[in-house]
Here is the input.
Amino acid sequence: MLKKFVILIRIRKGLFVLAAIFCALVIGALLIGISDNIPGILLCYLAATIPFIALTRNWQEVKKFLILMGASTVGLAVFGILHNVVSALLNTEEPVFFIIATIVCPIGFLVGAAGSVVLTIKKFRRPRQSASI
Here is the structure.
């Protein structure tokens, strides 16, 4: 019972750290400004990666990260097309599908790629147990 409690506290501490990093990045981006300002835009992108990292930090299978990469790639195309179709139908600029296509999908792809690379490297670095006779 105590072991489960310690694990829950460790998970909660990790989420609080990620939440603090997220808040710091958002506040930094707002203080710098994001209107045609490269450092502010980069801080926004970094802040947007934190929820992806929080959701995927306990994944231990390369397959899940590859699925995230594939879904992000397909989502980029789908939401880009949806943005254009909805904008043409409404004769106005539509921001929701545009933001998903330009911010969320590339970040999902990068997190999926990084996670799959890290887990693949971990897999090959594990010492193999030799069979004893």
